[in-house]
Amino acid sequence: RGQWLAFSQEPAGQDNSLCLDDDQEGNLWLGTPRGLFQVRERLVTLFDVSDGLSHQKTWSVCEAFDGTIWVGTERGLSSISPDGKVHAMSGNDTERCVWPHPRNGVWTSRTSQGLYEVHNGETSRVADAALFPGSITSLWQDQDGPLYVGAEGGLLLFDNSVAKPWTRPSGVVAVRNVRSILRARDGSLWLGTGTN
């Protein structure tokens, strides 16, 4: 099976990992308050504002289906194309969560502003923040299924521009402060929750 690798210290001495993702080439992307690190075969590359990121504090990272790396930062959304070019999109909003959109592009949530989708450089709001129970803290979607939206107040399913409360299976405790979402190979849904 897999092998555990431990770093005695994160790259460049950072002590907070805010997010991570792996891409189709097996690279690990690690978001920190100092920037976005790419870890490949023991080679670590830091992307920060000097490379074109919107801000060094990286809240969320994902790979789109076309190989683009999307980066949600403290001051806007950035992308890294498969050839390594960094593009910062305009805006000063905190892009707290990013998730690949099935039609390429990306879903993103802006702190206290709602849910957005980005395609071909165009950003459009698909749901106002008032629709969600608190700030959006995580996103997850199958290629052809509904978008799961984790928020401070619980979990919602977003389908065809309609947000519906997630129906909690019998015997499952109430879900609040959903920080991360994962679908396991067996189809079960895993939720990472927080208390703060």
Describe the structure.
With 196 residues, the chain is mostly beta strands. Helices cover 0% and strands 48% of the residues. It has no helices and 18 strands. A four-stranded antiparallel β-sheet has the order 1-2-3-4, with no helix packed on it. It has a four-stranded antiparallel β-sheet with strand order 5-6-7-8, with no helix packed on it. Strands 9-10-11-12 form a four-stranded antiparallel β-sheet, with no helix packed on it. It is globular, with a radius of gyration of 17 Å. The chain starts with 18 loop residues before the first strand and ends with a strand. The N terminus is likely disordered.
Assign the structural class, choosing from mainly alpha, mainly beta, alpha/beta, alpha+beta, or little secondary structure: mainly beta
Low-confidence stretches: 1-10
Based on Cα principal axes, name the global outline. Answer: globular
- The whole-angstrom Rg is 17 Å
- Main pleated-sheet profile: 4 strands, antiparallel
Roughly what is the average pLDDT, rounded to an integer? Answer: 80
Total DSSP E strands: 18
Q: Which H/E pattern describes the elements?
A: EEEEEEEEEEEEEEEEEE
How would you sum up this structure in a few lines?
This protein is mostly beta strands and about 200 residues long. The protein has strands at about 20, 30, 35-40, 45, 60-65, 70-75, 75-80, 85-90, 95-100, 105-110, 115-120, 120-130, 135-140, 145-150, 155-160, 160-165, 180-185, 190-195.
